[in-house]
Amino acid sequence: MHVHDALTTRRTVHHYREDAVPAEVIRRAVEAAILAPNHRMTQPWRFVLLGRTAREPLVARSAELRAGPPAPPEVIERIRGKIVGPPHCLVVGCTRSDDDFRMGEDRSAVACAIQNLSLSLHADGVASKWSTGAITRDPAAYAAAGLDPAEVEIMGFVWIGFADQVPEAPARKPLAEVFTERE
Asked: How far apart are CA 108 and CA 114, in angstroms?
């Protein structure tokens, strides 16, 4: 797939089929991710692939964060579909730094890595969604991923799978509203 085609046809997908994505496709996407631009080559990205079993403990906690304890059963089941439904969940983290400026650069590099990852998956016919929210900042997510929150900041989850439904392209601002040329 040509890079421009990938950029213009990639979509954030919310609904996935049950079938697993081949491990080599996910590994190739992570290899593409770590080629992202990175000032000073700090290589701050960390990736942890969570299977469905590892994600199950996140369901109740996420439901509590959303609806308060005790979470109603219908909220728990809706959250279970979001957290355990997709075949794969990649936790993406950024190593922490005491230098605020470097931390900003490193977060930007991880965001670029997530874009590379998403485009690589898309080129292989695989869908993804970068997701953040209260659960991604909760100690339960760090425990599930085996990450130390003092060392790594979770930047989000990337849900990975074959699309059950591909949404239409969202509306974007016209180029004239976001691009200026000066001589």
From this structure: 10
